Amino acid sequence: MKNFLDQLADEDMPVMPDELDTNLHHRINNLLIGQQVLELICFAIPYVFFHYLHALTGATCFSMSGRYPKTGEDHATRDD
Q: How much is the pTM?
């Protein structure tokens, strides 16, 4: 008795229809466009907005006080 995979290897494959390839490309393209738009809305736009908001807050604080708020290390006074 033959193995199932050996039986499949002996079978003739039907010819793939041309419209199957076209339909597959259209479905994949639509899914990729949808995914990219979703990533843009959920990740890229909020990321840019919060970084822009940080810069705008710093510029506003500098305009009101004349000093930029100290955040992070002060590289000018660091002793090495």
A: 0.52
Interval 25-59: pLDDT, tens: 899 999 999 999 999 999 999 999 999 998 898 88
Residue 70, CB-side half-sphere exposure with 13 Å CA sphere? 5
Positive/negative CA dihedral, 59, 60, 61, 65: positive
Largest CA distance in the chain: 89
SS3 30: helix
Integer CA distances (angstroms), 69 to 54, 58, 61, 64, in order: 11, 7, 7, 11
What does the alpha-carbon distance between residue 73 and residue 39 come to, in Å, rounded to a whole number? 34
| Strand, coil or helix: 56 | helix
